[in-house]
Design brief:
The chain is an alpha+beta fold. The chain folds into two domains: about 60 residues; about 140 residues, Umud Fragment, subunit A (Ribbon), CATH 2.10.109. About 25% of the residues lie in helices and about 25% in strands. The protein contains seven helices and nine strands; from the N terminus they run ααααααβαββββββββ. A hairpin with a 5-residue loop joins β6 and β7.
Length: about 240
């Protein structure tokens, strides 16, 4: 599907075909929207961030359904919902899980808090923790924190909203080429990218899995912290 057709579908769905309202929704001018239509192009990140429930796959490829499918999550309860004799899972308080396992809970932190992980005195305050994860498969990984992925630059490897587990690297020699890393930078904030050697001295090349995002070089003195992504939690 052409970008122009996709734009028209979006305008019809979100604002009943009203181009001015749709432009306002995106935070751009009506003239800017008209330019997108005439050029058969649009800003993927802007649309993804402003259009609720839109499918990342459709936005990137034009294939599939425009909207994400919603799957109801299973409900775990203490109370049997029928009189049969099937053993049912019971909800457990998080405190009880911690008491009965040697698996360390991993904090999911805000991006603002994670941005300080390059600091030698980095510590996570309780107010910066969104929630805790207990993940048996990470038992033998040194996971320092988890953060949520935002944007589409690492699609389809990571989807927006996926939660990635990060191990802080204290030395550049522990970098793993072509592996996903979290990079804290002074000017651009937190980046999630693959790392590759640069042809320029004092630089590193950061690469997106989404081919719509070109690779670029970042000077080492711009980087305040590096962490290796050792795993992630995601939903279909």
């Amino acid at each position: 599907m052409e970008k122009r057709e996709m734009l028209r579908s979006l305008i019809n769905y979100y604002d009943n075909g009203n181009k001015s309202k749709f432009a306002k929704r995106l935070g751009i001018t009506a003239q800017g929207l008209s330019t997108w239509l005439s050029r058969n192009s649009f800003d993927i990140e802007v649309i993804f961030s402003k259009c609720e429930n839109i499918s990342a796959e459709w936005l990137l490829t034009g294939h599939g359904d425009m909207l994400k499918s919603v799957t109801a999550a299973p409900v775990v309860t203490d109370t049997p919902v029928s009189d049969d004799n099937i053993d049912r899972p019971k909800a457990q308080p998080l405190a009880a899980i911690w008491e009965n396992t040697n698996i360390k809970p991993i904090p999911l932190v805000t991006e603002k808090a994670a941005a300080g992980f390059g600091n030698g005195n980095f510590s996570i305050e309780e107010k910066d923790v969104k929630e805790y994860y207990v993940i048996p498969k990470f038992r033998y990984c040194k996971v320092d924190f988890m953060i949520e992925v935002s944007g589409l630059s690492m699609y389809p490897h990571f989807n927006p909203g996926d939660v990635i587990a990060c191990t802080i690297l204290k030395d550049r020699k522990f970098l793993q080429w072509n592996k996903c890393h979290v990079i804290a930078t002074r000017e651009q904030g937190i980046l999630v990218k693959r790392l590759m050697p640069s042809t320029k001295d004092g630089y590193i090349t950061v690469v997106s899995d989404n081919k719509e995002y070109p690779a670029f070089d970042v000077p080492f003195d711009e980087i305040t912290g590096l962490a290796l992504v050792v795993g992630f939690v995601g939903l279909e």
